[in-house]
Amino acid sequence: MSAPALPETITPVNVGRELLMPALLLALAAYLSYGMLTMQVPDSVAFPGPRFFPLLITIGLVALTILDIADIFRRAARYRQHTAAQTDQVELAYTAPIMVSAAEPTKALDHRSLAWVTLGFLFFALTLPYTGWVIGAGLLFWCVARGFGATRPIFSLVVGLTVSSFAYIMFDMILGLSLPSGILGGSF
C-alpha cells in the first residue's frame, strides 16, 4: 500500500529560504515608498502625477507579498499536519513511536535558467541606451522566457516586442514620460 500523495507542502527547514524572496520584495516596496515620500513634486502637477504609478506598484508588491507569505506558512502548516498524521499512523501500526521523515528532496539549482535570466538583465541594463526600450525590453522578455523554460523562441520574442512596444506607447506617448528610444530614435 502506497502512502497518499502529499499535497503541495514546504518543510520547516525550507521556510527560511522561501521567505527570502518576500523579504526582498518588501524591501523593494519600502524603497519605492521612500522614493515617493521624498520626491519633489511641483504643486502644478496634475493627476495622476509622478507618484501615482509607483504607488500602484508598491501597493501591488505589498499585496502579492502578503499573499505569498500566507501561502508559505499555509504549506508549512500542511506539512506539519501531514507528518503528524503519518507519525500517528506509524505508532498505531507498530505500537512503538517511530519518527517518519517525509522531507522532500531538495531540487538542484538550474544554473542554465539562472544564467539566462541574470545575463538577460545585465544585457538589458548595459545596452538600454543603445538598443532602446522596445528592443531592449523585448530581448529581456525573451531571455526571461528562455530561463523559465519557454520552448518557442520566436513566439517569445514577438510577445516581448509587443509588450515592450505597448509599454513604450503607454509611458512615452500617453503619460509623457520619456523612455530611451535607442536605434529606433528617428522612428517615433
Automatic annotation (TrEMBL):
The record's InterPro entries line, in alphabetical order, gives: DUF1468
Q: Out of the domains of life, which is the source? A: Bacteria
Keyword list (alphabetical) reads: Membrane, Transmembrane, Transmembrane helix
**Entry annotated with the keyword Zinc:** no
The answer, when asked if Lipid metabolism is one of the entry's keywords, is no
What region holds the DUF1468 domain? 21-180
Q: Which residues cross the membrane?
A: 19-37, 52-73, 114-142, 154-171
Q: What protein name does the entry list?
A: Tripartite tricarboxylate transporter TctB family protein
Organism equals Candidatus Rothia avicola
Give the taxonomic lineage as stored in the record.
Bacteria, Bacillati, Actinomycetota, Actinomycetes, Micrococcales
